[in-house]
Amino acid sequence: MTVRAAVAGASGYAGGEVLRLLLQHPEVEIGVLTAGSNAGQRLGALQPHLLPLADRVLAATTAETLAGHDVVFLALPHGQSAAVAEQLGESVLVVDMGADFRLADAADWERFYGSPHAGTWPYGLPELPGARAALEGSRRVAVPGCYPTAVSLALAPAYAAGLAEPEAVVVAASGTSGAGKAAKPHLLGSEVMGSMSPYGVGGLHRHTPEMIQNLSAAAGERVTVSFTPTLAPMPRGILATSSAKARPGVDTGRLREVYEKAYADEPFVHLLPEGRWPATGAVYGSNTAQLQVAYDEAAGRILVISAIDNLTKGTAGGAVQSMNLALGLPETSGLPATGIAP
Ligand SMILES: NC(=O)C1=CN([C@@H]2O[C@H](COP(=O)(O)OP(=O)(O)OC[C@H]3O[C@@H](n4cnc5c(N)ncnc54)[C@H](OP(=O)(O)O)[C@@H]3O)[C@@H](O)[C@H]2O)C=CC1
Ligand SMILES: CC(=O)N[C@@H](CCC(=O)OP(=O)(O)O)C(=O)O
């Protein structure tokens, strides 16, 4: 089977990463690549690491240029995917790496994104309860945000097993590629190098409702999330520390048992052996999420540390994994499970 794939937003970070993975995918042939202001440029000038595609000229992002493919990846800014997606046929698989179709609650969407809600598609985090079945055979996929990927993988098993009170606290650090390629004053090298800083503090970050949605679904009751993102001086990676008050009866043994069972058969979620801790360096460039759990007896809290590469498992890897499921291909095709070190 040969799958012909187009990528809209090929000049950006998410588009570049999905192309890196698709170039290694045994069943995929790369078709049209599009951009916005960089339409007309050669890809090699913008993504010099994608050597086999260096001479490809970027087309304008329109439904016409994206027509005639089996799958279209949309790596466009928030709010731009819906207009393109609605013009693509229903038989085409559309994988949206933006946020447009992630949230089920229209009021949440409007509050955090400030535009009308476009709809809700099957959610591209197969490891969440029920998600894999919804992706199989689907022709529309909403790829999760990078922080919600790290945090949902970390806390969903605890909530699904009834181990935690419905009030989660999350502090997470992200590499700068999470903010995209467009120049922003707080992302200048001299602002970021040698410094860590918080942003979106106090429930303001748009990934908060996405985490609440996923964890509430796992818990079967409304979970609140206090989320503090921080910017770290590294190009890729997210390290999230997620915690919640433990319910009576929880101890280290029970906590480990729940996580071992939840992820025993998952190819891309790795619960580390006791005493070892996740690190962004260990998952760099891979589609793997590393997890470790701890029970803080004195505080009565469950702690889960998770590490992902924001561009791989946090975006493009999740997108390709979901494509594989949607098209009935082996779920792991084209996806590296091993990282690059040091
Ligand atoms: N970076 C990350 O870790 C993650 C990103 N995502 C999502 O992926 C999407 C892309 O993000 P990212 O790659 O980081 O962003 P970038 O800013 O790096 O890339 C944006 C891409 O969209 C194109 N584009 C911008 N405006 C338009 C337009 N009006 N019409 C057509 N194309 C346009 C750009 O083209 P040009 O170069 O020509 O301007 C570029 O190819 C976003 O929705 C983001 O939320 C999701 C999870 C994680
Ligand atoms: C460091 C940084 O700025 N990160 C981005 C998250 C990137 C991402 O995954 O999210 P979306 O797909 O929802 O854009 C942010 O906090 O806005």
TrEMBL record:
<dbReference type="GO" id="GO:0003942">
    <property type="term" value="F:N-acetyl-gamma-glutamyl-phosphate reductase activity"/>
</dbReference>
<dbReference type="InterPro" id="IPR000534">
    <property type="entry name" value="Semialdehyde_DH_NAD-bd"/>
</dbReference>
<comment type="pathway">
    <text>Amino-acid biosynthesis; L-arginine biosynthesis; N(2)-acetyl-L-ornithine from L-glutamate: step 3/4.</text>
</comment>
<dbReference type="Pfam" id="PF01118">
    <property type="entry name" value="Semialdhyde_dh"/>
</dbReference>
<dbReference type="InterPro" id="IPR050085">
    <property type="entry name" value="AGPR"/>
</dbReference>
<dbReference type="Pfam" id="PF22698">
    <property type="entry name" value="Semialdhyde_dhC_1"/>
</dbReference>
<keyword id="KW-0521">NADP</keyword>
<dbReference type="InterPro" id="IPR023013">
    <property type="entry name" value="AGPR_AS"/>
</dbReference>
<dbReference type="InterPro" id="IPR058924">
    <property type="entry name" value="AGPR_dimerisation_dom"/>
</dbReference>
<feature type="domain" description="Semialdehyde dehydrogenase NAD-binding">
    <location>
        <begin position="4"/>
        <end position="136"/>
    </location>
</feature>
<feature type="active site">
    <location>
        <position position="146"/>
    </location>
</feature>
<keyword id="KW-0055">Arginine biosynthesis</keyword>
<dbReference type="InterPro" id="IPR000706">
    <property type="entry name" value="AGPR_type-1"/>
</dbReference>
<comment type="function">
    <text>Catalyzes the NADPH-dependent reduction of N-acetyl-5-glutamyl phosphate to yield N-acetyl-L-glutamate 5-semialdehyde.</text>
</comment>
<keyword id="KW-0963">Cytoplasm</keyword>
<keyword id="KW-0028">Amino-acid biosynthesis</keyword>
<dbReference type="InterPro" id="IPR036291">
    <property type="entry name" value="NAD(P)-bd_dom_sf"/>
</dbReference>
<protein>
    <recommendedName>
        <fullName>N-acetyl-gamma-glutamyl-phosphate reductase</fullName>
        <ecNumber>1.2.1.38</ecNumber>
    </recommendedName>
</protein>
<comment type="similarity">
    <text>Belongs to the NAGSA dehydrogenase family. Type 1 subfamily.</text>
</comment>
<keyword id="KW-0560">Oxidoreductase</keyword>
